[in-house]
Amino acid sequence: MERITNIVNAKVWLKGEIIDAGISISGDKIAKIGKESNLLKAEKVFDVGGRIVLPGFIDVHTHLRDFKLSYKEDFLSGTSAAVAGGFTLVLDMPNNKPPTTNSSVIKARIEKAKKNIYCDVGFYATPKSPEHVRELISAGCIAIKIYMAKSLDGEKYSTKKEIYDLIKETSSLGIMLSIHAEDLRMIKRFNDSPSAYLHAKTHPIKAEENAISIALEAAKKAHGKINICHVSTLGGLIMIKKAKKEGVDVTCEATPHHSILTNKVFEKFGRVAIVEPPLRSKKHTEAILKGILDEDVDILATDHAPHTLEEKERAHPGFPGLETALPVFFTLVKDGLLPLDKIINAFTIKPAKRFSLTHAGEICAGKVANFTIIDLKSEGKIDQSKFFSKAKFSPFNGMVTKARVYATFIRGKEVFLNGEIVSEKGVGKVITW
């Protein structure tokens, strides 16, 4: 007989509405949703104090690092940051050392992760050529990721033909292809460490828009499906919207930083704010925010990318995002800039459907009991020194927020509660294709 836990005194997000209800959990699955008087007899009762219980949030764009990059982040610290940020499932990117480009690396990452994760984790891989996709799926990867402007391990996907060939293969096998869209021909490289302003100039708007155009043409010709990562420009979003109307099977992600941070933060944060694609002007952030509102942006993602501070001074792109995304986006909700349902759907049901994460994305009987519990009455400031991530810096540092993550349930267990990790490691599971 599985142990029963009841969540009570809750406002539950159920089929697009907030209702007063309780949830019975049997083992790691949702057993029943309903009035508290109708819940199952439980060994444990968890009172959420009237807070909102949401489906477990999903981040389809996380860099967990580990292996030879464990000094930046490892599975333990990265998934600690994930649950502290309200994420119950993350998909790990392949630009690691060694890069996730062959079956042996995928198997090794899966094996190490099993005992060292607080939330569910799936792994991206980058194939050296299209014919390697099937082997990577068999090894356990959850999705395919390519970088149009660089190679991880000798592969090259920058032309329409190269991307077309890959899309034909991924789509025939049913696996999602995510694309970092920047045109290699338009990006400049510097031997020294450029300033944030200079780095942004080396990754111009046209580089992203050209690459998106190439990827969309390839997807249209291949009759296949793609996901464009971290869209940051008005023009890129317009092209994606147009392609959807023409029947192209494309989705796109947006990040918190591309939604509200402009390149003016370079003045305060300098190289800490370097990211690829770079932060843009207000015109572009307003376009991304409107894209979320209009649902032209399908998925919200963090692009959590930890480095050391010394590496940031050498202009390494990216910064941690798992612990800031939900406070930032729910503050936008509280400020009336975005509706609650758009944020919830873009972090739950939409990524679950797009990436075939069948156990996740909504609260209903039979689904895995992964929950994100939000306190919408808690004000504070983002404090980078308190991050669970090894990377304790952020261009959001000091931002006043009007919401916080109160608790995170992974497979029926409270793993994060009121600022603390309260579970043993290894409670999360590796999700494979």
Describe the structure.
It is a single chain. The protein has 2 domains: 4-53 and 367-423, Urease, subunit C, domain 1 (Roll); 57-354, TIM Barrel (Alpha-Beta Barrel). It is 30% helix and 23% strand. The protein has helices at residues 75-84, 103-113, 133-139, 160-173, 196-202, 205-222, 234-245, 256-260, 266-269, 282-294, 309-313, 325-334, 340-347, 349-354; strands at 4-14, 17-26, 29-34, 44-47, 52-55, 57-62, 87-92, 120-125, 143-147, 177-180, 225-228, 249-254, 299-300, 371-375, 380-381, 400-401, 404-410, 413-417, 420-421, 430-431. Strands 1, 2, 3, 4, 5, 14, 17, 18 and 19 form a 9-stranded mixed β-sheet that branches. Strands 6, 7, 8, 9, 10, 11, 12, 13 and 20 form a 9-stranded parallel β-sheet that branches. Helix 4 crosses helix 6 (205-222) and helix 6 packs parallel to helix 7. The radius of gyration is 21 Å and the shape is globular. 55% of the residues are buried.
Compile the SSE list and pairings.
Elements: E1 4-14, E2 17-26, E3 29-34, E4 44-47, E5 52-55, E6 57-62, H1 75-84, E7 87-92, H2 103-113, E8 120-125, H3 133-139, E9 143-147, H4 160-173, E10 177-180, H5 196-202, H6 205-222, E11 225-228, H7 234-245, E12 249-254, H8 256-260, H9 266-269, H10 282-294, E13 299-300, H11 309-313, H12 325-334, H13 340-347, H14 349-354, E14 371-375, E15 380-381, E16 400-401, E17 404-410, E18 413-417, E19 420-421, E20 430-431
Parallel strand pairs: 1-4, 1-5, 6-7, 7-8, 8-9, 8-20, 9-10, 10-11, 11-12, 12-13
Antiparallel strand pairs: 1-2, 2-3, 5-14, 14-17, 15-16, 17-18, 18-19
Helix pairs in contact: 2-3, 4-6, 6-7
